[in-house]
Structure to design on (75 residues):
């Protein structure tokens, strides 16, 4: 039994994704099924997700403090 999954995305993202999938010999639906299959098999996203550099700028002071605390407890 199959289910229908509907997702709202920007029109240009959909068009670019369809074009790239077609270059790979896939439909967009097949590409999405591959993504979902890999996510279930791995029990994680099939690619790494990293914070943007803007977030890194916000978090940098906290990371520096954490490093100083770590070095304090190493002695």
């Amino acid at each position: 039994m199959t289910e229908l999954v509907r997702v709202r995305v920007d029109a240009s993202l959909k068009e670019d994704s369809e074009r790239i999938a077609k270059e790979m010999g896939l439909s967009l639906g097949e590409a999405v099924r591959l993504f979902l299959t890999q996510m279930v098999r791995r029990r994680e996203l099939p690619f790494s997700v990293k914070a943007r550099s803007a977030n890194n700028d916000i978090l940098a002071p906290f990371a520096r403090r954490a490093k100083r605390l770590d070095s304090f407890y190493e002695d």
